[in-house]
Amino acid sequence: MKTAARSTHPQSTPTLGYASVAPGEPLYGPAIEEQLVAIRRACERLNLRLIDIVRDHQPDRGGDENQPGLMQVLNRIDSGEASCLVVSDIERLARRTAQLETILDRLEKGHARLVALDLGLDSATEAGSMALGRSAEPPAPEAPPDDATAPNWEALRKRIASMRADGMTLQAIADTLNEEGVPPQDGGAKWRPSSVRIAAGHTRSSRRTG
Predict the structure, then answer these.
(1) Does residue 118 sit within a domain?
(2) Residue 151 vs residues 66, 174, 191: alpha-carbon distances, Å
(3) What is the 3-state secondary structure (H, E, C) of the chain?
(4) Which range marks the domain in which residue 181 is found?
(5) In terms of domains, do 126 and 184 share one?
C-alpha cells in the first residue's frame, strides 16, 4: 500500500481519495492512475481540499482486513484528519454488499461525506443521501411534484428486492430498468449493477440484504 503526494490546494473540506486495483496489478500502473486523475478533477470541481490519495490492492477474498489502505483511510477519517472520501468507482471501495454496508455505516457515524463518481453520488446532497438510505433531517413539506411520471422510489425499491428474490442478477435488473426507461435513483445516465445494489440493499433498517 502506497500513498500519493499530498495536495496543497486551498479548498475547504479536507478530503481523502481511495484508489484500488486487483491483486497483481501495479499500484502505479495505468488503471490506478486513471482513478487518481478522476479523483483530483472531482475535488477541484467540488471545492474539496485533497490531502492524500491512498492506493491499495483489492483482496483476493475475505473482508476489509485484507485492505490495509482502506483501513488507513477509515482510521484517518475517524481521527478527524478528513471529513470526505472520494472514489472513482464504488466497487473499488468494496465489492461485497455486506462490506460496503459496514463502510457506509462507519462513514455515517463519523459524519463523513462520500463521493462515488461512477454513480454520480454525493452524500452531501439530498439525492445522494436518499440513494444511501439516509434521512439526516426530516424533509420539509413539499408541493406535489410537477412531473406526475416521477418514479415511486419506495415501490421501485420493493420491486428490485422482489426481482432479486426471484434470482435475477444485478446486471439483469439494471438491463430491465434501462429498457423500461426508469431513471436511475442516483441521477446517473443509466442503471448499473452498483446502482441497483445501492437502491435495493443499502437501507438503514434492521433487514439486511446480501
Answers:
(1) yes
(2) 39, 15, 14
(3) CEECCCCCCCCCEEEEEEEEECCCCCCCCHHHHHHHHHHHHHHHHCCEEEEEEEEEECCCCCCHHHCHHHHHHHHHHHCCCCCEEEECCHHHHCCCHHHHHHHHHHHHHCCCEEEEHHHCEECCCHHHHHHCCCCCCCCCCCCCCCCCCCCCHHHHHHHHHHHHHCCCCHHHHHHHHHHHCCCCCCCCCCCCHHHHHHHHHCCCCCCCCC
(4) 153-201
(5) no
Look up the pTM and report it: 0.60
Residue 139 lies in a domain: no
User: For residue 142, what pLDDT is reported?
Assistant: 47
Q: Are 207 and 196 in contact (CB under 8 A)?
A: no
Q: What is the CATH number of the domain that holds 34?
A: 3.40.50.1390
Flag residues of the chain having pLDDT under 70.
1-11, 61-65, 133-151, 186-187, 201-210
Supply the pLDDT for residue 138.
44
